[in-house]
Amino acid sequence: MKRSRAETVRTGIAAAALAACLAIPAAKAASEHPIFMSVSGGIRAPIGWIEFCSEYAPECETKPLEPRDVVLTAKAWKEMARINQWVNDTIKPITDLEHWGVVERWNYPDDGYGDCEDYVLLKRRMLMQAGWPRQALLVTVVRDKRGDGHAVLTVKTDRGEYVLDNQNEEILLWTETGYRFVKRQSQRDPNVWVSLGDPRAAGATAASR
């Protein structure tokens, strides 16, 4: 059936709009830098994660799964951005020493206060509750631009690895953050951690930022 000129124009506009939406994360991924991190061998998990698993044992008693990346559609990007923004706006930053009287404690910020790891854990939980695969949501330890230990959530997608960060409102590809990536959870098993890049950098721990 032959379409009218008006129908053809409307279809073209809709297709262009959809392409523009999908191009938002894709444009970020278009870079001369690698969009996926270099993963080395296994390494000891941060003490904060080990203690978190003692307190929240059911969440860490998981079976290994096959690695899985998120298909980064316009809808997925919008949902990720919404959750990231909500957590950053809602949780008030506080150090573990001020909050709990200890140097390091990973915990859900259910009272509305937390440090970097707590932001990460909440974003990870909310994304999983929204149906995102655990294997693509990786707690990650980095050195920030000042060289301090810091934690972020790496979201592994078919368009690259994006970083959700309480120090930056914008969701960025990992190569755009200016951070030195140290170690993170394995995609197969969250209780197994792997080195990132130079294994000599893997001694970093996340500070209360």
Write structural notes for this entry:
- The chain is globular.
- It is α+β, with helices and mostly antiparallel strands and 209 residues long.
- 35% of the residues lie in helices and 22% in strands.
- It has a single domain (5-201), classed as C8orf32 fold (Roll), CATH 3.10.620.
Itemize the secondary structure elements and their pairings.
Layout: H1 5-29, E1 39-43, H2 47-55, H3 57-60, H4 74-90, E2 92-93, H5 96-100, E3 113-114, H6 116-129, E4 137-143, E5 149-157, E6 160-165, E7 168-173, E8 180-185, E9 193-196
Parallel strand pairs: 2-3
Antiparallel strand pairs: 1-9, 4-5, 4-8, 5-6, 6-7, 8-9
- How many domains would you count in the coordinates? 1
Beta percentage is 15-25%
Write down the overall geometry: globular
In order across it, which strands form the biggest sheet?
Answer: 1-9-8-4-5-6-7
CATH class: Alpha Beta
Structural class: alpha+beta
CATH architecture: Roll
